[in-house]
Amino acid sequence: MFRKLLQQIHTCVRLLLCKKEEPYFALYQILGFYPGHIALYEEAFRHSSASIWMPDRHSINNERLEFLGDGLLDCIVADILYRRYPDAQEGFLTISRSKVVQRDMLDKIALEIGLDKLIIFSPKVSNLNNHVYGNAFEALVGAVYVDKGYATCFQFVERMIDQHLDLNQITQQEINFKSSLLEWGQKHRVTIFFDLMENTTDEEGKLLFHTAIHVMGGREIGMGTGYSKKESQQQAAQMALNRLRSDKQLRKQIYAEQKEAKAAQLNAQT
Fold first, then answer.
1. Among the listed residues 90, 261, 94, the one whose alpha carbon sits nearest the alpha carbon of residue 190
2. CB distance 238 to 178 below 8 Å
3. In sequence order, what are the residues at sequence separation of 6 or more whose Cβ sits closer than 8 angstroms to the Cβ of residue 63?
4. pLDDT per position as a tens digit, 34-65
């Protein structure tokens, strides 16, 4: 019995010493806890340019965890805003969430916690796009969720926001919905078109501009009206972002139609 107890103590000490070594300790400094499955975090930091190809042609990189983290951030930030602004209306909460999860904010957090030093990428890539860091942060959020569950993931994201962002200041800032929509299109490889429609006038005779937003394949995802082209584009982009964030089926249809349209375009060229 005593020998068995000594073995258990020895095992615990050995594991503790291992956790003080890299990469456990480096991750502990970022996460605030030791990772349970280190391979998940290594995957979260592996850029697609450094993919590991398995015998079945399955590739290992951070894109799947990035996809998961993207959805989790939407959910967790909505949760945080709902709790902290109990009197806010749905429109304020939706816009504020868009501001917090926009690419520049995620890039900022990623760089400040040092993810740029942990990302694994191919030496053939001469320079990384800054958004790679924000993407890695999304993947890290996905890894935390898979490793530790929602409660720990929520606490981690909340701590990152509190330590690296000024939530009250961000919610008061005016967001550029057009830029955010174009960033979304770039990230998901979806071509987006802003089309100025026929102008009309209001009851007082003032000129009104109408903008429709389409994706490759012709699907309309947003429509906006304003007293300037910019205002109509912003309204249309806001509608499009809200639809894209809330309608999973719409996103699937857009991805499929985009793929078909690109294939048809290539066939026409050949």
1. 261
2. no
3. 48, 139
4. 888 888 999 999 988 878 877 777 778 899 99
